[in-house]
Amino acid sequence: MMIFILASGYLLTVYLLIALAKRAGKKSTSASAALPTHENYTQEASVQPKVTEISSVR
Questions:
Q1: How far apart are CA 7 and CA 22, in angstroms?
Q2: Which pLDDT score is estimated for 53?
Q3: Which of 8, 39, 40, 50 has the most beta carbons within 10 angstroms of its beta carbon?
Q4: What is the mean pLDDT of the chain?
Q5: Rounded CA separation 35/41 (Å)
Q6: Given CA atoms 34, 40, 44, 50 in this order, what sign does their dihedral have?
Q7: Mean pLDDT along residues 15-19
Q8: CA angle 44, 50, 51 (to 5 degrees)
Q9: In sequence order, what are the residues at sequence separation of 6 or more whose Cβ sits closer than 8 angstroms to the Cβ of residue 42?
């Protein structure tokens, strides 16, 4: 009889954790959709090559 009580408690706990994970997943996706992404911004920095001449004096 004790094994059935423990098994039902385990199943209930797993069910609740899965339900909470699904609920948290839905909230995070809707909240992240409202945040701006870097695709909306243009890159304004330009990269210019910087070449220096090194001469060794001996």
A1: 23
A2: 74
A3: 8
A4: 77
A5: 13
A6: positive
A7: 96
A8: 160
A9: none
Looking up tokens 């009580």, which residue turns up?
5
State the pLDDT at residue 34: 57
Long-range contacts of 8-15 (CB under 8 A, 24+ apart): none
Position 14: which residue type? Answer: V
Give me the DSSP letters along the chain.
-HHHHHHHHHHHHHHHHHHHHHHHHHHHHHHHHHS--GGGS-----------------
Spatial separation of the C-alpha atoms in residues 16 and 10, rounded to whole Å: 10
